[in-house]
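Entry:
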Amino acid sequence: MFIQTESTPNPATLKFLPGQAVLGAGTADFPSADGAEASPLARRLFDVTGVTGVFLGSEFVTVTKDEAADWDHVKPAVLGAIMEHFQSGDPVMAGEGGASGHAAFDGEDAEIVSQIKELLDTRVRPGVAQDGGDITFHGFDRGVVYLHMQGACAGCPSSTLTLKMGIENLLRHYIPEVSEVRPVAV
């Protein structure tokens, strides 16, 4: 098994491509070891000293390390953990997993929210996934769109610029009712 590694805009995060499907559909975000019981792969990665976050995409695994750890020490252990997992035959997710997506929204702004989600899915999320992360809709209130940043996007130094100059401008251009975009921590 050959696992490719790609850097991301976030220096604390690397993207690992195992050359096979990780999650069939959706994503799974584990910003800490606390919620990792849902994924045997994430649990294995959190056993690596220095790993502070795991994000699973359709064909990639994004791993975030703490500031004190050095990638020269963490990366070989992460590669080993990913390889061991896929060779073990264990599932990536225990039971029903993945499918992290947009928050449901009902109300008078449902048509606007539908347009926001469509733009996110077609114009934003594919590019963000290339960087090892995901951005999902969390809410809409009086012109303000609330988005949840995951994987490499969470804590990335350029995430504020991406939100304000990229996503906000895109949404405001196509949907006049949008006045601002803000990140939300879940």
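Helices lie at 40-46, 71-88, 110-130, 159-174.
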